[in-house]
Design brief:
three-stranded parallel β-sheet; Rossmann fold; mainly alpha; 326 residues
Length: 326
Amino acid sequence: MKKRLFSGTAPTGVLTIGNYLGALRNWAVRQEEYDSLFSIVDMHALTVPRDGRELRQRSRDFLCLYLACGLDPEKSTLFLQSGNPAHGELAWILSCHTAMGELSRMTQYKAKAQKSGANAGLFTYPVLMAADILLYGTHLVPVGDDQKQHLELARRLAVRFNKKYGELFTLPEPLIPEKTGRIMNLKDPSSKMDKSHPERETFIALTDTPGEITRKISRAKTDSRGTFDLNDRESGIGNLVRIYSALTGLGEGTVVWEYEHRGYGPFKRDLAEILCESLRPIRERYGEIRGDESYLTELLKRGEEKARRKSEPVLTRVKEAVGLGI
């Protein structure tokens, strides 16, 4: 049997080139190797108050982009997290075995609480994330640097339960994605590109038009000195070179060699053209399927049924172990 892989994205903001290069592109490859579950983790989006209709529509936007980026519902399980109640059930059981101190040390909680204010959901959502992973007997979880702490919590909880109740959970391992380098904010290269950033000029969305892409790249921060210094973290040129390299397969040094004597103008024009051509099939495929609501509804129903079947053995064992049910 294939090893099982789980990953997901909260349907907040819009999916960006950073999400594509860091996750979605790799997911499409991984679905050939693993029994893959890719979820739209809509329950995580509730840590900030949202309009229900907008959240539902955005969840479908994300599903369409999953498909447009190459995920195949015949090869992977694609589903809404909220479509499988087992996520919430297991999260409650896990939360009763999680120390307050473990959650208070989560760096993302500290950062997000400062921005939007703290609530109980924001504090405990790492437990829900652990439930997402452990519920399916997951062997592998694709993680970036900002998610390692959450996977470590899932592993601690798995070890804790297994020690107390027997072998209930598979111990998940991190799957480090192919190195592309973290894609940063186009205006502030000291910050990661954020799909929920209120200023759209800071990111390239997967559905951006060629005109929008060209404008954003032309205005993206580079370096006032006009150099191609990839080691300068305050400079945005390294970020743009990483995007160019990731989309073309050329080494960053090769990209610099090609443009360091030609300047930023030709480099940005060529990068914009590469982005437009790379995202064109995604944007076109998204447009083809986004209006077919009946197809999306049926796809989600089938995905949720598959997810429930795959989660049932684990949840049943856990409930029996802790004394829930008949």
